[in-house]
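=== RUN LOG ===
request id: a7f3
mode: sequence -> structure
chains: 1
length: 373
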Amino acid sequence: MSLSGDSTMYEAFWKSVGAEADTLIAGWTSMSYSSDITNLCWFLEPQLAHQIRRLHKFVGNAVAGVDRFIIVGTGSSQLIQASLYALSPPDAAEPMSVVSLAPYCPSSLHKWAGDASKFTGYNYIELVCTTNGPDDCDDPDDPKREAILREALLSFSDRKTVHDLAYYWPQYTPITHRADHDIMLFTPSKSTGHAGSRIGWALVKDRAVAKRMMQYVELNTMGVAKEAQLRASKILQLVCDAYEDPERDIKMKLFEFAAEKLGNRWGKLKKVGSASSIFTVPSFDQISGLFTVPCFTMDVCYFFEDTSSHRPAFAWLECEKDEVEDPESYLKEKGIVVRGGSRFGIEARYVLFSMLDDDQIFDLYLQRLAALS
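=== RESULT ===
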């Protein structure tokens, strides 16, 4: 398992698609830095922009009309940095504090101020992960909780927020509404599994903010590789085409494949957890109502047009043995790669377990978990 959460689970799907998903790039094409000099984001390939808007309209998970600016970046990590740069006043006396509700993924690249629920200042930018990447819960003191659609916690009049929606796709959570925030970040690494292409996109309302984000990417990497953009464009096109063509086999539909796969995996993991005397698995039966968007074990998903459950990309396992002081190291010694809760601002007794590895690795880890006593 990759510590970065590689989505190798999707390899089986794209192998079944075959050569139709291949991208051929002639040696003489896409040689310029520029793609469309009339566009604010001049290095964004027009066909990728078209497929991004098409996909969001089709899935219904985000407002992505022509009145929204698309900024492409080298993955979500660069786009987060670009967002922080764009929202920070250039003449500020000190760096902006960056906060997020725990569990979170901290960074030393900016002035990290920790848990948003404990922040008391005014000069801040809040990162909102919805559904939260390392989190499938809604009470900051108890990681055993349901995947939810988070809203910003802090509510000062001049608040600045960045919404990371990498997991707001129907295979992970019901699509209950079309998100419409100032800055929304997405990436194929979690939507289609193509983490190696190192590409992501932001949907931005304000032109001035979008321009500063674009300038950050321009200064940082002089744009985004055309090869990655063209491949992403082809992949997104095939995802949409499979649903628009009534003759397509169900096996060609990405979101059904991933939802079924994750549903089966959660069933297996819960079975192992219920028999374990060392680690427990989230039961998804406690909802605190802390957030403004309600969440239940089952929600109506407008994409699947049915009642659908949450199938998070990661699971929290809680160590029940007091004598195990470092559950992360304990499991790694047993050949199970996880990340400890202390990395995410919560207690070390919790460990983060990926649900996105390929079948062989995932089943091997389950066997090793089941063998613990």
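=== NOTES ===
Residues 133-147, 284-296 have pLDDT under 50 and may be disordered.
The chain is about 30% helix and 15% strand.
=== END ===
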